[in-house]
Amino acid sequence: MKILGRVLLAAVAIVAVIAIVFAINVLLGMHAHARVTGTISGLRVGAPVSILRDSRGVPHILALSDRDAFFAQGYVQGSDRLFQMDLLRRFTLGELSEIFGTSSLQTDQAERAIPIRNIVETQWRRLDVPTRELLGAFSDGVNAAIEREPLPVEFRLLAYRPRPWTPQDSLAVGMATVLDLTDDWDAVASRDAAYRRGGLALLAQRFPLTDPCYDAPVLSGLGRIAAGPRCNRNVERLVSLLAEPRAALGSNEWAAGANRTLTHRSLLANDPHLSLGIPGVWYLVDLHSPHYHASGVSLPGLPAVVLGHNEHIAWGATAGTVTSLSVFEPPANLDPAGWHTERIAVRFHATASARYYRTARLFGVTTRDGHFVLVRWSAYRDPVSPAQSFIALDRAASIEAAAADLAHFPGPSLNFVLADTSGRAAYLLAGQIPNDPVRARWIHPARDLKSEYPAIPFAQLPKVAGSRDAVVWTANNKMYGAGYPFALSPQFAPPYRAYRIAELLRARARYDVPYFMQMQMDALSLPERGLAQAIAPAVAAHDVEAGDALARWNGEMTGDSTAATIVAGLRSQLTHRKNGRMPGLLANAGTLRTLPAGIAVPSPEPWRLAGAVTVRHALAALGLTFLDGTTLPGYGDAFTLHVQTPGYSQSFRAVWDVGNWDAGGITLPQGESGEPGSGHYTDQADAWVQGRLWPLPFNDATVQRTAAERQLLLP
After folding, report:
1. Any alpha helices (H) in 439-485, and if so which ranges?
2. Of 20, 457, 680, 684, which alpha carbon lies 20 to 30 A from 4's?
3. SS3 535
4. pLDDT the model gives residue 433
5. How far apart are CA 59 and CA 712, in angstroms?
């Protein structure tokens, strides 16, 4: 027993020493960050490359060739965002279990159903030689950073090193966004269940194409958008619309030609809505070589500027929310040759395996509700990377040149607004949209596998020609009105944000940068204002003060509002489905006299507290909350232009004064760097909350004048 006691004491001591060493290692990692000054030599560049970082750590890359500019972009991304890049790569390829063990095995098994590795290998072979060279240069830059810079603290915490980066990894990271913005088989299965249970009537009720009371299609033009809601409806219908699954999906964009602005230059605003985390979805960069100058946001792991501007044009994008793929019941006898087994490495456990069905034309997946289906999707059947389109867009010298490039854009289908230095603004929808009569509203019977549904030609997709008088906008809503020949979607996002954009654009004859900034901070919820008015009498029967607050509420989801907290809480309860059904509402008129059983009136806490959102790190799920970002006060929600809900928000806010590039700006929710010790982990958070746009220097003199750190990369 004494020997056992001594062994246990020794074991405890060893564990304590290991814990102390681990804690010191992590503490050192928290303060470590990549170099941002000085000279780094021995790199795979053809000539010296300057990296000038501004006051918030954004790199402005000055190179003598496109290849060297892309190498430097890989180096700065690998320095600032390496763990995020590796996590995205592993998630998309279904390789998280190599790091997290069995806890992520189900995720990997689900991701492996889509053969991303095969898709990106085909994408790589189909790229032209110049694009391959640029992707290769970017990968070389990432690997140089892995070799020369301190590894981020997350690698210390999880005790592993990242493998080298490849061009195919960049293409795989690009596919993560494609998957995120695609109306997938699980969404189709949900609509299919409603169709089978109640036919077209229930399908239209549960998954409406739009809300006709607030329709605001850009093709109709600003002058034809109604000045107020066009219909009255009962409260049950309103609650149903607020409950539908695409209510929180979205992004905003709008642009105006020079004849509609105070600057006499075109203006463009964009704020995509994506997951809210730290580090953020986007990485800011300014790329400059003799034949390439683009500035804006890139995706960590992927080269080029995805959204932003060059010297001639600016562009923004929102998800098209259109049909992406066709889903089929499997035939009775599947081709046995289509089944494949994949092995999945699992940390600290035996290798797992899973079987998948794939042919040259389609692949099999099991939906969230356990339904095995076959999927026909152009991204699988005819793989083309969007990277080549964005590189071409970075070089486009006019709206026409951009449109010619986007005519070949493979997807995900996006609404683009464009503005150029001639003072024109334009809109177009780009991507591969199958002309499938089912429109992903339900699952095709197996007999439909013999039918083909070619993509709708780009020339026939919605667009507004470039004009100095144009005012264009989208917010994932239905973009066409009566008379358009194609039905593009099973269900667009509700039009409330689009209608509000049109309402604010209609309120002014001419616009400037501050007005567009003000629009992006707008927190008026049109549907919840209607809900508050409809339920105020019923709430007053329980709580007179709360009912009166709802009756007088202006619809603003702002920080001091207690009515915002009440209506958000009631909406959540009224739209909560239990066993597929929402609480029964007894009103046939526009108001509700009695609250359904079990519905409680929330306490009137200010929305800045009740709606507050903490920006979480990916490892917070493991209890490692010390890597989290700031807590954003409640402001806006899922139905306002200023979108903010737990884990989801505007991912950046940008306004471009086209041609006077230093006059606009762009702000991220937290910071540029993914390294807590860098000083740029959360340094944009205050500006974000206050609605300030941070200038992104573009012309040579401004870049030089605002440089806070200078770094030189040498051969």
Report:
1. none
2. 20
3. helix
4. 97
5. 12
- Residue pair 345/351 in contact (Cβ under 8 Å)? The answer is yes
The amino acid at 699: N
pLDDT tens-digit series, residues 76-104: 999 999 999 999 999 999 999 999 999 99
Structure tokens at 69: 């500019």
Q: Any bridge partners for residue 278, and if so which?
A: 617
Burial track 54-76 (b if 16+ CB lie within 10 A, e otherwise): bebbbbbbbbebbbbbbbbbbbb
State which H helix or E strand residue 418 sits in.
Answer: strand 414-420
Pick the closest to residue 146 from 245, 79, 51 (CA basis): 79
Count Cβ neighbours within 10 Å for each residue of 133-154 and write b for 16 or more, e otherwise: ebbbbbbbbbbbbbeebbbbbb
> CA 553, CA 568: separation in Å to the nearest integer?
13
Token digits of residue 77: 């991304």
Phi and psi dihedrals of 375, rounded to 5? -120, 130
Dist. CA 510–CA 502, nearest whole Å: 13
Kindly report, residue by residue over 636-669, the tens digit of the pLDDT: 999 999 999 999 999 999 999 999 999 999 999 9
Alpha-carbon distances, residue 408 vs 150, 219, 309, 401, 668 (angstroms): 40, 22, 20, 12, 30
Q: Under DSSP, is residue 632 helix (H, G, I), strand (E, B) or coil?
A: strand
Nearest residue to 570 (alpha-carbon basis) of 551, 544, 598, 612: 598
SS3 63: coil
The H-or-E segment that residue 544 falls in is helix 544-552
**Of the candidates 694, 678, 697, 706, the residue with the CA atom closest to the CA atom of residue 79:** 678
pTM over 0.85: yes
Q: ∠ CA(279), CA(282), CA(284), 5° rounding?
A: 105
Backbone torsions φ then ψ of 676, nearest 5 degrees: -55, -30
- pLDDT tens digits, one per residue of 3-27: 333 333 333 333 333 344 454 555 5
Please tell me the distance from the alpha carbon of residue 317 to that of residue 307, in angstroms, as a whole number: 7
Cα separation, 618 vs 630, in Å, equals 14
Which strand (E) or helix (H) includes residue 317?
Answer: strand 313-319
Q: What is the Cα–Cα distance from 359 to 340, expressed in whole angstroms?
A: 10
Phi, psi of 655, deg, nearest 5 = -135, 125
